[in-house]
Amino acid sequence: MQPSFDPSAAHFASRYVSAFAALPFAMQYGFAVVFGLVIGSFLTVVVHRLPVLLERAWRAEVEAAMPDAADLPKPAADPYPERFNLAVPRSACPHCKHVLRAWENIPVISYLALRGRCSTCGARVSPRYPLIELATGALAALSLYAFGPSWPAVAAFGLCATLLAAGLIDYDTRYLPDVLTLPLLWAGLIVNFGEGGFATLHDAVTGAIAGYLFLWCVYWLFKLVRGVEGMGYGDFKLLAAIGAWLGWASLAQVLLIAAVAGAAFGIVATWKKRMRFEEPLPFGPFLAAGGAITLFVGTPLYALFG
Ligand SMILES: [Zn+2]
């Protein structure tokens, strides 16, 4: 008699997928949304703390390389304790330093229960936190809807969550961290390495190269012709990562969506006097949006152009 046990990792992993797929639909979506909300809660921490950690690392590097770097301008806003990372210290109210209790960390629900205020001093809590959590929950449900109960759905959600965090950090700081864009690029190549990815490995590698080179060329053209820097290297790496996930054929649509959305945002922000006209716009959030939209809807825009 043949042994029924298959020790391969693929079989082991597929048992989880088939167990999940056997659940009723409502439970599948309920699980996805709760999972998304929890990851979203973590993303609010990443978006808030990662730039602080990176600035500290950068400063330590400069100080190590230049002994007289004590003259460096002090960081504009780093009121955080010595020991500070993505897990420590626990989240606290920036006004009264009240450390959030466990239930106050429950995504969205705690915000609603406290009516958007600190439980101790009553200071307003930014609606940004529950909005990021809700967006992440929605992206998890969307990934399940688009790809069914499968590993590609999990991978798609990982792509969306990273794009969301990277886009928000770029919006806040005008900086796209390598610690997000480079692993995202590798992950895209790995996801497409075997069968059942989002693109063939050939298209993924071509996409990574084309994504980087295209924006690199645009950057140098602008710099040579007009003497301005419209983008940063982070944008090249982000588009390379999107190309690695979705393949080179997706890039034209991703760029078109990003350019149109960026221009629309710039016009509205200038018109509402939120921005000055000359102010450079971070391109990362719009590339991220273009990547996420293309992940879910494919490339219908190409049909318009024949
Ligand atoms: Zn407070």
Please, could you describe this protein's structure?
The chain is mostly helical and 306 residues long. It has two domains: 16-149, no CATH class; 176-306, no CATH class. The chain is 64% helix and 0% strand. The mean pLDDT is 90. The site of zinc ion has 8 residues, from loops.
In short:
64% of the residues lie in helices and 0% in strands. With 306 residues, the chain is mainly alpha-helical. The radius of gyration is 22 Å and the shape is globular.
Considering the chains and any ligands shown, give keywords for the structure:
306 residues; binds zinc ion; protease; mainly alpha; methyltransferase; single chain; 11 helices; 64% helix; globular
Q: What is the number of beta strands?
A: 0
Output mean pLDDT.
90
**N-to-C series of helices and strands:** HHHHHHHHHHH
Contiguous uncertain segments of 5+ residues:
none
- What coarse outline follows from CA principal-axis ratios? globular
β-sheet strand percentage:
under 5%
Global Rg: 22 Å
Number of domains: 2
Structural class computed from helices and strand pairing: mainly alpha
Main location: membrane
Membrane topology: Multi-pass membrane protein
Catalytic activity: Typically cleaves a -Gly-|-Phe- bond to release an N-terminal, basic peptide of 5-8 residues from type IV prepilin, and then N-methylates the new N-terminal amino group, the methyl donor being S-adenosyl-L-methionine
Function: Plays an essential role in type IV pili and type II pseudopili formation by proteolytically removing the leader sequence from substrate proteins and subsequently monomethylating the alpha-amino group of the newly exposed N-terminal phenylalanine.
